[in-house]
Amino acid sequence: MKKFLKRLAAGILAAALAAGLSGCSMATSGKRIIRISHAQAETHPEHLGLLAFKQYVEEQLGDKYEVQIFPNEILGSAQKAIELTQTGAIDFVVAGTANLETFADVYEIFSMPYLFDSEDVYRSVMEDTDYMQNIYQSTDDAGFRVVTWYNAGTRNFYAKTPIRTPDDLKGKKIRVQQSPASVAMVQSFGAAAAPMGFGEVYTAIQQGVIDGAENNELALTNNKHGEVAKYYSYNKHQMVPDMLVGNLKFLNSLSPKEYEVFKEAARRSTEVELAEWDKSIDAAKVKAKTEMGVEFIDVDVDAFKKMVLPLHEKMLNDNPKIRDLYQHIQEENQKLKGGQ
Ligand code: GCU
After folding, report:
1. Which domains occur in the chain, in start order?
2. Cα–Cα dist 236/215, whole Å
3. In testing the pocket of ligand 1, which one of 179, 198, 221, 274 has its CB within 8 Å of the most ligand atoms?
């Protein structure tokens, strides 16, 4: 049913676009419709953040713009929605950096396992908007630009059978995001990597096409993966942020005053998302444990780390574009270590 609705919505949009409503974006009220696509449910912190974005834009510029948010991959998977944003069929999409790697090499850095020493380091790097500005502009040639980031937590393995040591990953088939670096990471653990879109993961686990996946805790509840995978292991291999990405032509078409409004709306959306994130992780853990029967397993993180650390050097050699940011993050790792 969900699939049918998705296809219907995508079909309606495609038909509207094919009809050449270049004012596809004009409502009957004469307002310019701003379309935002994301992959999460309406209870997810990102959706709540985007509601704050909508509210602010409409408060400030409501006579001209109406913001419409399309959750649940209704307009297609992240990769598809990025293409729609590239062409300007829609205006914004929330996509994980793994999905941006094919457009700008620098984003590969976030797929590097055990890059940040802690969530504090991760947040402080990501919140340094001056530093991140350069990175945000790296997809300009592809026709889109990042306008802000959202926390997508720490990624951990979960499966149908318990993963207590790295050995338990051997021979397992694990879904990863469509990113070469994530494929390499899972292979370093001796598992087989199955790259696929987020929306396909539930059925793939259920039907035994894969043994498990890796993600933050909300995948268990918001995306219901806890119904089909009952063991979640805190090996903490990645912190991969999500990005709010905007069509560049649209951003460039804004007057300086309007641009400031969208920038502020993006900032507010992140503020809301970050505040909601911690709360929703706590709630997801309780729900997964008590209602879905998921067992949370604490593992020896260093044992996992050891197996994939050689990837740092390999990635740095293969991709010079990530070196600066890597160095910057290492400095932040050191700084926060000193401060602790
Ligand atoms: C998280 C993240 C998404 C990403 C997904 C995935 O849910 O927020 O942006 O697409 O993981 O694993 O594909």
Report:
1. 2-152+240-281 (3.40.190.170), 154-239+292-338 (3.40.190.170)
2. 9
3. 198
